[in-house]
């Protein structure tokens, strides 16, 4: 059988960042916490906690913490049916759900529904921004659900289509006057600074390919921030693909212009949620799908 | 002597994400690009480019790309003095400056001055968000300058104080009514969900320690987004330390309240810039310090 007091010690150290605070949380002495963690590490032959300020989980320790959270979610359900199991001397267990989202959803519609859910349910949420590892994270239990552009159903998950997030290729009027005096030609696009979120961001290239029918390589600034993209576009630093919900007003007022009118790019998004958790988190799924629909229909 | 045509091939592949596009950028055949990269990798006995879609730099490849950008900056200066050196057949070289910033500066005052600088200078900028590796990145040339809370002067850098970014412990009125009906006591703080940016974010703990004189461990949501913090505070999901420039209006209008009136936390920020580059980037430093001063004095 797993030694749950040791597992609980590891997750408390990671949660609080120190052995002393973990001891306070668990109502035991720091040396008891230290001993439990050490014995488990020796038995497994691997380091679970990177000692430091703060103490953090190693990769192996991370998996163990995720396991404890999934168990916590099951326990919370069990306590609902059998309240007598709750030990009144123990602090009320708070369960943290790990959820991934792409950055542009977090910057537009994602936070309102998860906030509603958190307030009503009492769950704590750990929001991770990710575009690359979502399938892996879902499969290995690193996150329990994700908003993702990943169309392929992840093994062990339910997948729901949320609809497309619409992007516009936008820049400020002075940027367009400066860099595209003769219109948005292939040559001009090849010389006008674009904005790119990070190495994985192909939105600008996809738009260029669709419009010009060929791969061009615009010079680019790199800016890993959804809000920063809008600000940089407004200030005339570069052009970039901005999510419709963040630029609709700027487009209406003329502070931003589409490089070429009516040439949006739609990115379909999905909600992928672990099958084992899906039934228990049906409220979360409902909030997420309703908010996405409302946001995407408005664009 | 370094084989600069091979180095240029590596950086072009990383910049464009593929051997084909790099070939287009350099006006040579894809097989020439591939050969140059391969020969250099064989000579060094290490992989410089992780082949994929897109192709990215390995850690060793990253250093090589940084070197090429620093050389590019020196060349740009040289061409100013000796324009005859510019080969009219070659595409105009665009130099990318790598700059790090803490997330909250990027979310408040940082983008306006770097945008001004980018527009006037023609430099491309690669903005990296970082709180942990700044000293290392500056020392090893991974970035050329950084906005950081790191007070200690980094070897090889000039350091300028930018002033303190002010934070307020804030929550929505309904959150405060719900979680602090008898005031913000130590016990209530231990049960009310806080917001934490990531494992390195000690601002909430520092504020709690200062106010209550002891370490408490509030339950917490994890949310790695500056704008997300403000939204989550407004929606009553949790309380968190928010930068004054983002919450001033919300505090004035009463949409957010300080947990305890007039208990801000000030975080001094610094501009650290590589000494070799400092003279050439004096305009950037001027923009940065002026914008920081204006923003911090307004809080």
Automatic annotation (TrEMBL), chains A, B:
InterPro entries: ArgP (IPR017685), LTTR (IPR050176), LysR_HTH_N (IPR000847), LysR_subst-bd (IPR005119), WH-like_DNA-bd_sf (IPR036388), WH_DNA-bd_sf (IPR036390). Keywords: DNA-binding, Transcription, Transcription regulation. Pfam families: HTH_1, LysR_substrate. Residues 2-58 form the HTH lysR-type domain. It comes from the Bacteria. GO terms for molecular function: DNA binding; DNA-binding transcription factor activity. Belongs to the LysR transcriptional regulatory family. This is LysR family transcriptional regulator.
């Amino acid at each position: 059988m797993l030694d749950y007091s040791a597992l609980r010690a590891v997750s408390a150290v990671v949660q609080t960042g120190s052995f002393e605070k973990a001891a306070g949380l668990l109502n035991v002495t720091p040396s008891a916490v230290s001993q439990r963690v050490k014995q488990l590490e020796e038995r497994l032959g691997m380091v679970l906690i990177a000692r430091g300020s703060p103490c953090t989980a190693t990769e192996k320790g991370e998996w163990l913490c995720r396991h404890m959270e999934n168990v916590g979610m099951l326990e919370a359900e069990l306590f609902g049916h059998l309240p007598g199991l709750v030990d009144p001397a123990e602090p009320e267990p708070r369960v943290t759900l790990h959820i991934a989202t792409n950055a542009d959803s977090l910057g537009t519609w994602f936070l309102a529904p998860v906030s509603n859910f958190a307030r009503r349910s009492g769950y704590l949420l750990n929001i991770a921004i990710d575009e690359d590892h979502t399938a892996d994270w879902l499969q290995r239990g690193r996150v329990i659900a994700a908003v993702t552009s990943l169309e392929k159903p992840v093994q062990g998950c339910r997948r729901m289509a949320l609809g497309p997030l619409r992007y516009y290729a936008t820049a400020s009027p002075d940027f367009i006057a400066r860099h595209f005096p003769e219109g948005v030609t292939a040559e001009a696009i090849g010389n006008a600074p674009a904005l790119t979120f990070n190495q994985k961001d192909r939105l600008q290239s996809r738009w260029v390919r669709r419009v010009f029918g060929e791969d061009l390589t615009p010079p680019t600034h790199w800016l890993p921030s959804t809000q920063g993209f809008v600000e940089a576009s407004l200030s005339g630093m570069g052009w970039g693909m901005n999510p419709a919900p963040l630029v609709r007003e700027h487009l209406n007022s003329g502070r931003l212009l589409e490089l070429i009118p009516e040439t949006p790019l739609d990115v379909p998004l999905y909600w992928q949620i672990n099958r084992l958790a899906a039934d228990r988190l049906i409220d979360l799924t409902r909030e997420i799908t309703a908010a996405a629909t409302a946001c995407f229909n408005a664009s």
